[in-house]
Batch of 2 targets.
Target 1
Amino acid sequence: MCVFRTSCVRSYRFPHCRKACFIPRVRHIAVEPELVAPHWQLFIVMPHEVEFWQGAEDRRHHRLLYRREKAGWQRENLWP
């Protein structure tokens, strides 16, 4: 049961549930669409590049760049 129009589909503070948990929530919203605030929107982000930093105490951080190419994601190590 959803309270105060919180997200009924996904509980963001918890690990992702399996389909057995997720599908009934989606069906519940289909039956009662007023549970979702009318101004909520869905955005899909499709990045071409993603950079990750892993900090190090000596400040020589590990930086990884993932770049989308036709063959899939390519990984590069970048300078600290």
Target 2
Amino acid sequence: MARRSRTRARLAGPVVDDGPGARRRPVGPVGGDRGRRLRGVGAWKPSRVYVQGDVVVHDGTEYTAKWWTRNQEPGDRWGPWEPSS
């Protein structure tokens, strides 16, 4: 009978660490539908890094990132976020 390895699988490639207590997650493809499915829709957090195509909810409105951003609050007309339709 073969022994099972107790070694945890390591994440290949770049990962995002959202701080203490948060789970590390692999960085998915940038932009497009696939990126949304992998990263999901969640509440905007200033300390989190977002890339083009990421979707967040802020003040009851869903926004999509137009480019890489961190600590830039959604809602600014000239910022990296646009309201999702």
